[in-house]
Structure prediction request, 913 residues.
Amino acid sequence: MSGRSPDTFPRLLLHQAAVRADQPAVREKDLGIWQTWTWGQVADEVRALACGLAEIGFKRGDNLAIIGDNRPRLYWAMAAAQCLGGVPVPMYQDAVAQELLFVLQDAEIKFAIVEDQEQVDKLLEVKEHCPQLAHILYDEPRGMRHYNQHFLHGLDEVQQMGRTHMRNHPEFLDAEIAQGSPDDVAIMLYTSGTTGKPKGVCQTHAAFITAAQSGVDFDSLGPQDDILSYLPMAWVGDHLFSYGQAMVAGFTINCPESGDTVMTDLREIGPTYYFAPPRVFENLLTQVMIRMEDASAIKRGMFQYFMEVARRCGSEILDRRADVALSDRVLYALGNLCVYGPLRNVLGMSRIRVAYTAGAAIGPDLFRFYRSIGINLKQLYGSTETCAAVCLQPDGEIKFDSVGKPVPGVEVKIADNGEVLVRSAAMLKGYYKRPDATAESIDPEGYFRTGDAGFFDGDGHLKIIDRAKDVGKMASGAIYAPNYIENKLKFFSHIKEAVAFGDRREMVCAFINIDMGSVGNWAERRNIAYSGYTDLAQREEVYQLICECVEKANAELSHDAMLCDSQVHRFLILHKELDPDDDELTRTRKVRRGFIAEKYQVLIDALYSGKSSQFIETQVKFEDGRSGKVSADLRIMEAKTFPSQAAKKAA
Amino acid sequence: MSDGRNIGEVILNLEGISLAFGGVNALQDISFDVREHEVRAIIGPNGAGKSSMLNVINGVYHPQKGVITFHGQTRRNMDTHAAAAQGIGRTFQNIALFKGMSVLDNLMTGRNLKMKCNFLQQALYWGPARREELEHRRKIEEVIDFLEIEHIRKTPVGRLPYGLQKRVELGRALAAEPSMLLLDEPMAGMNVEEKQDMCRFILDVNDEFGTTIVLIEHDMGVVMDISDRVVVLDYGRKIADGTPDEVKSNQAVIDAYLGVAH
Prediction:
């Protein structure tokens, strides 16, 4: 775009509405049919909403909470708040009321736009602790008929007020939009809080537009692209892809019908551009593997044969490398016809040009799988504070263990202690009301401390090892990177989550969560009866199954000179799934290591004391906020470890 | 739970209903009524005659004695077709769906009574049949949206877990847009979360569509929470009738449930 390009999101929206008024901007599946709004219609809806908000008293500088699944009107609410010079604050829709309370208080929320009755109920529950919360607006009127509080409004009603307002004051909104400056805060995203309380990251229009623009240029995204918006709106990734880049490039965002229909919707839309954290790719792969195990012997044989071919040459062919044997090319083409093509279709990825993964380290095997079946999956590195744009993998330069090269305009350097430092235009203005935290995370030269440990390889690609504070040393002096071990374990479809321990210890031990879908299916086929997660997890057969996985991971680790000491010696399968409602995971499903270590101290002690079982009772919170107890006698199993193969090779 | 709802006049009145199978007296001289828009529960120990009672209401069983008055029409027996045509829908204790058909198709069968086109028109899917089908599909989609079963729309019912099948069955009953819904143990065999969801749906149906609900349920917590009035049966006799609180403190009810030395 040229130099006079729009420099705030509201102006971008008006620009898109002028340039491609009749092209689709948003789709949402409603009553089983995809409904489309054009850019022109979106601009109109946003205007009505903005004027309606102004009518009920929303002013420049106010913060607007947005809570709900990915609904078009919630995205429009963001734009509407920005039109008026306010700041949208999206929150995780599955957070319990108490978690919302912290953000509501911290961000001094006066206005909230929420999806439905469920979210309204949560806000009402904590409202007495947030006296400043003056208005709650809801999108979905179902079940709201008997709520007669004067501070509750339906979005329809507010938009109606807005339309009247527009007729009476036709110049009002344009004047408000004209007042906006690129240096105004455009959005406040709360960090997931792997450590301590969440912090509000303030990003300006300029920063986010820069980040979005560089991504759009990098992969030449355009109005013809389609994306499925299904990740939490409060996550920087969704904000960058579904809001920032969509506004800049003018492509279409598609909102799924509900959280449960994402797979079906993905197949129906067939996005050309796709973004997901590694766990989503893991889940997809698990589903494929479950279904393959149920398939007939011929299909299974064919699948295995061609996946072997793909492993050998798939990603090389995708990278258009010249050194692939002709026989492999022929086999791959055949495989594409019989296996990879249909598989991509089932995954809803037939039309994908570019797919990204970010948010956590992705297992190399998992990554290789998708690339080998012809999906251009790439890694991206960034954080909330850097608008999720630090490093991207350029096409044709994909390395499984690096996150790519710095995005143009972003300076990356490695501190003496190995920490990755970033300086760019797309950086946070500051943490909300936390000058101390802001000062701590930005060094005097203006570099942002990412907290990740990493280094540049020979080709200038950044490699991330782990969170800097997580990387430790074993008692033997060998480096210990828990994430790396956990990712190795999590690649097995039977293992959903793993937590490794080993810092300053003689050996590595691990907690394992089995994958209910995958192991449940496995048990069903073997006629193993079970009553639920806790029961299944403690079955002897399941322990054997997981033990095999752990030993495979150990065998692989033994080939790595640096990490062969990190083989898992002893493990146990947890009696409950780790859950963000119990504070064990963050809302972005990252393990909260410190908290888990504290909560399950007895189990860790048992792992290292050589016991063969340990009793534990744990409080759990149900979805409705009530709590109960789960108890079990957990078995602890030894896994085989292997002598270092790397050392042998060298010898 | 009745805040904001208008409980209306009596729409169903049962008087002196007696039903016997040979020598077994399933129901003996039972009288009670159901008011418009209320949630009416029928409870009682196993074999008390609860399901028989529902079967009498929608015409599956024909009582030997007694009269039924529904919407002002008094008759000895209900006829199943007439009951359905007059807006009585029901679900069954043992799920009675077409296992091999998709959720969507199962729900469509709930619209059967409302379809006007003949067989030939439907087979050709032309003109009015097409319009009619689309209109019915829209209704069905509203039910799907209401019960939050979008993700299983096209799944064969036999592949669904029990809790979801129950929900689909409720959906099929709703598809007929009943004015009165008979639910036979809608929450049997469910876990806590599924029960809560089901409660929510039942209350929402009652609230959004003003549907009168008659339900049989064993979970006392649920019954006491969601019903407006409760009738208690034991060995085919009515032993109590009243608000949940009245019923809870009734000695005969306590004896029937806890057992008492005779």
In short: Chain A has a mean pLDDT of 89. The radius of gyration of chain A is 25 Å. Chain A touches chain B through 16 residues (CB under 8 Å).
